[in-house]
UniProtKB/TrEMBL annotation:
Gene3D superfamilies: CDGSH iron-sulfur domain, mitoNEET-type. The lineage of its organism: Bacteria, Bacillati, Actinomycetota, Actinomycetes, Propionibacteriales. GO terms for molecular function: 2 iron, 2 sulfur cluster binding; metal ion binding. It comes from Nocardioides immobilis. The keyword Iron-sulfur applies. One of its GO terms (cellular component) is cytoplasm. This is CDGSH iron-sulfur domain-containing protein. It comes from the Bacteria. Residues 36-70 form the Iron-binding zinc finger CDGSH type domain. InterPro entries: FeS-contain_CDGSH-typ, MitoNEET_CISD. Keywords: 2Fe-2S, Iron, Iron-sulfur, Metal-binding.
Length: 87
C-alpha cells in the first residue's frame, strides 16, 4: 500500500475563534436555509460569521474586528466530573 492509501481522512473540526468566526476544517457540506449546498470545491477551511454583521453571510469578512465583537467562549463542565469529594 502507498502512504496515501493508508492515510485516514482527518476528522472535521469546528473551532470557535476568540472574538471571531467559527472555523470549520476538514471535509464537510454547508447548506443554506433552503437546503442548497454552497460550492466549497477545494476548500478545507471555512470561516463562518458569528458577529452577524458580515456582508458575505454566512461567511466571515472580518467585520467582527472593526465592530469590536467579543465572545466569552468556554468549554462546558462535564456533569460526570462532579464526583470529586463524593463519599
Amino acid at each position: 500500500m502507498t502512504d496515501s492509501a493508508q492515510r485516514q481522512p482527518r476528522p472535521t473540526s469546528v473551532k470557535a475563534v476568540r472574538n471571531g468566526p467559527l472555523q470549520l476544517k476538514g471535509t464537510f457540506r454547508l447548506l443554506d436555509p433552503d437546503g442548497d449546498e454552497y460550492d466549497l470545491e477545494g476548500q478545507r477551511i471555512v470561516l463562518l460569521c458569528r458577529c452577524g454583521r458580515s456582508k458575505d453571510q454566512p461567511f466571515c469578512d472580518s467585520t467582527h474586528s472593526r465592530v469590536g465583537f467579543l465572545t466569552e467562549d468556554r468549554v462546558a463542565c462535564d456533569p460526570s466530573d462532579d464526583d470529586e469529594g463524593a463519599a
